[in-house]
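Propose amino acids for all 251 sites.
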């Protein structure tokens, strides 16, 4: 007895009929070319063309060349630039020469102090305050205030002696008093290693005060056109000023 099976019909897709004649002709999809935007009409501008190969072949890029820096004087580069301290008005050689002249009270060169500056005095005042700080005394404000008042006091005295015709201004007075305070700075440094209130520190104080007074008086007398006849009065004013600073060291 034969048994029948239900076989589903086989269906071929369009264009896939093996007979080749039942369906319509086979349709083929041709590949389309990639989209290329229109090129620029100006051939001298390669970046306007979207053809990468032609742009890379026609354009050659090189490292940009910058012109050298030209200074105001016409020299190239920064080799001829003045040093930073010179631009700030700080002459280290002049400060050194003035300091050496102060250290020798018998050979003082007053011509070095004709060009006044505050760089050296500020350095000495900061050193004075630092030595006082090491001794446990915070005197920075007192030192700067006393130097300003002392310069103003000596300037007024010199103006009164010269009948308002002197050639020393307040700036030069401040410079001279600041440089001549160097012996007091040395006294402040030595006092860190000497017992306070003893005979040694008192003798050193007297020597340093006389040293500062002699140097400051001689500078004022030589730089002022009228100071020779008032040497004693100028020396007395200088003695009072440096005696006050020495008392900061002792007490």
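Proposal:
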């Amino acid at each position: 007895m034969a048994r029948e099976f239900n076989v589903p019909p086989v269906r071929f897709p369009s264009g896939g009929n093996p007979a080749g004649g039942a369906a319509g002709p086979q349709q083929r999809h041709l590949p389309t070319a990639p989209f290329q935007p229109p090129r620029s009409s100006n051939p001298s501008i390669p970046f306007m063309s979207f053809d990468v190969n032609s742009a890379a072949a026609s354009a050659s890029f090189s490292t940009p060349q910058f012109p050298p820096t030209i200074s105001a004087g016409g020299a190239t580069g920064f080799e001829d630039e003045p040093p930073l301290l010179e631009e700030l008005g700080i002459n280290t050689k002049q400060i050194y020469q003035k300091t050496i002249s102060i250290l020798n009270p018998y050979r003082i060169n007053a011509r070095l102090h004709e060009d006044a500056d505050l760089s050296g005095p500020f350095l000495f005042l900061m050193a004075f305050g630092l030595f006082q700080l090491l001794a446990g005394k915070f005197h920075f404000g007192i030192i700067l205030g006393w130097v300003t008042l002392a310069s103003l006091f000596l300037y007024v005295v010199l103006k009164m002696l010269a009948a308002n015709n002197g050639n020393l201004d307040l700036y030069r007075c401040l410079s001279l008093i600041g440089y001549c305070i160097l012996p007091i700075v040395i006294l402040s440094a030595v006092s860190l290693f000497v017992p306070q209130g003893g005979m040694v520190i008192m003798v050193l104080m007297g020597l340093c005060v006389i040293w500062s007074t002699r140097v400051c008086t001689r500078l004022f007398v030589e730089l002022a056109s009228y100071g020779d006849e008032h040497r004693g009065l100028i020396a007395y004013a200088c003695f009072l000023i440096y005696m006050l600073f020495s008392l900061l060291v002792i007490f």
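The radius of gyration is 46 Å. Confidence is low (pLDDT under 50) at residues 20-24, 55-59.
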